[in-house]
Design a protein that fits this description.
The protein is mainly beta and about 220 residues long. The protein contains two helices and 13 strands. It has a domain of about 150 residues. The N terminus is likely disordered.
Length: about 220
């Protein structure tokens, strides 16, 4: 009879926490800036889409899976909602936000954030191998890097029914239905996204632990 109260005491902290924290909740806001004047002149088209040995599949329910050439699942994850719009690489729009696409296993970002030319006149070639997804589950942009199996969630500015525009010098979003008193178009320079994009790069390899017979295995 005493086990029931004990079980309730153990469950109460879990219920209070509300379950596991979703990775797209509680994100630090980005310094989005309102677009006061549209860029002058014609914007050059984004580079051609990439291809490779990685297969990326996105379902209408909002699940994502990355499989390599050997059939090994390198990433399985859920998105913030149902996919509404999607772009790949440096801004190539996809006909539908769901389906299966090929991505390269070697990308500029997979070589490390220090190899990117942040002052380049057109930064979009360095975004090769990325998948950008807008969902209906909230103002969050999901950026997937299949080559490293990493996902980045970027909080969007106020608004609803977003669309995305990758320009040579910045990332721009159009809030189709902006909040009252808010701007309808926002942007972020690519250099401002450096700390976030770094999370899509390769993770540092942990050094092997030493033992009594081999105290310094990394040397």
């Amino acid at each position: 009879m005493r086990l029931a109260p004990l079980g309730l005491m153990l469950c109460c902290p879990l219920l209070a926490q509300g379950g596991p924290r979703l990775p797209w909740r509680g994100l630090a806001p980005l310094a989005w800036q309102p677009v006061l004047h549209p860029p002058g002149g014609a914007v050059p088209p984004p580079p051609a889409p990439s291809t490779g040995s990685l297969r990326v599949r996105v379902t209408p329910e909002g699940t994502l899976r990355v499989v390599d050439a050997r059939g090994v699942i390198r990433l399985r994850a859920g998105l913030p909602g149902r996919p509404q719009r999607a772009w790949r690489d440096g801004g190539v729009p996809l006909e539908t936000p769901t389906g299966t696409w090929r991505f390269p296993a070697r990308t500029p970002l997979a070589q490390g954030i220090g190899t990117l030319q942040w002052c380049a006149a057109d930064f979009r070639p360095f975004l090769d191998g990325l998948l950008w997804i807008l969902c209906d589950g909230g103002a969050v942009l999901a950026v997937v890097h299949p080559a490293t199996g990493e996902i980045l969630y970027l909080p969007l500015p106020p608004g609803r029914s977003f669309t995305l525009r990758l320009l040579p010098d910045r990332l721009e979003v159009d809030a189709g239905r902006p909040e009252p008193g808010s701007a309808s178009r926002w942007f972020l320079p690519w250099i401002a996204l450096l700390p976030r994009l770094a999370d899509l790069g390769p993770r540092p390899r942990a050094l092997p632990r030493g033992t009594a017979l081999d105290p310094f295995p990394s040397q």
